[in-house]
Amino acid sequence: MNLQSLLSTLRSGELDLLDYIDQLEARFNEREPDVLAFVPENGYFGKRPPVAAQHKRFPRLRRQAQQILEQYPDPDTRPPLFGLPIGVKDIFHVDGFVTQAGSQLPAEILQGDEAKSVTILRQAGALILGKTVTTEFAYFAPGPTRNPHNPQHTPGGSSSGSAAAVGAGLCPFAFGTQTIGSINRPAAFCGVVGYKPSYGRISPNGVIPLSRSLDHIGFFTQDATGAELMAAHLCQNWQNIAPSDKKPVLGIPDGSYLERAEPEGLAHFRADCERLKAAGFEIKTVNAMPDFDEIQRQHLVLMAAETARFHAQWFRDYESRYHAKTAELIRKGQTHTDEEIKAAQAYKAIVKEHLTTLMDEHGLDLWISPSATGPAPRGLDSTGDPIMNLPWTNAGLPTLTIPTGFNEAGLPLALQLTGRWQ
After folding, report:
1. 116 included as an active-site residue
2. What is the pLDDT of residues 229-273, one digit of tens each?
3. pTM (2 decimals)?
4. Active-site residue, selected from the candidate residues 117, 158, 160, 162
């Protein structure tokens, strides 16, 4: 059942909300012990939490469901997201939940007011299924989550738990963030839709930042129609535009950027392009981002520097509690000056203008590219390479990951669509 149909049946009462939660619990008990997408509600955070750590979740969820049923007994008055269970990446503050951000820092210093994006969905009738696992402070130090298609492979990061939760069918929607590739890459690895709107379209208020100039708030769904439905609730000044009869013109960004894809990922992307051509889409190959190495360098400078500044006091007080990967980023960021930050922020505008100008010159409606360098790598020590997402995040442009198939090992592969600033 797609997201739109699910909401319709929950609002009408055709699908009883409490019966639906029973179904969720059965699915959760079946898949979560292997996927480990959610942060246990007793605050335990380890490689394999005890089963008892999850026992609080569904009694709490049933209480919330009973409250919303009593609040809206008449189906005609029910809010649009009535009873929708959502996952929330554990860098978002949620009233009634502890924010740990995948870290070992004292929980009391990390708390804050509920994220505006979460409040919006709650007010529309959504229920919080729980916090989803994140890499430490949304960087590269992985949590325990595993790929729902093969537990020996990474689900990606930093929104690992959210992507895996939707991919495993544990919830139909989950929040994520992207500073390099933390929505589009795990969406590709887990075989789900991942959407990141233009920079700032979804409020970052109430979310622990990694890099304020680069962080994007986005989410995961199981289908593109569901992504459109949820974007209408979350994106500021969202406008529903009727589909055009004319197919969009697609552009392939040829050059050093595309060469960073792995042979398997690039071959699948080329096959995707051929399928699109066969379906009547016009595709143009455009030489783009000749300074790709500099785009990457400037992006990483800005991310490291802003991370170091945000974590300055915490790092002074609790340096030993940071994962080595996060600590390395912060130490690197401490070496960058305010002038370097300003230069990197200015460079973002140049990248955005370059990509937008190319779209104008060549009559492109969308860029298309691989969502990841290839399928999810084997092993859980790394979350994979986000390089295919980096330039679009740097430019602040909206991106959408759509699953487009599987490799011979049964791991998902996906296409990344990038639009104009909106």
Report:
1. no
2. 999 999 999 988 888 889 999 999 999 999 999 999 999 999 999
3. 0.96
4. 158
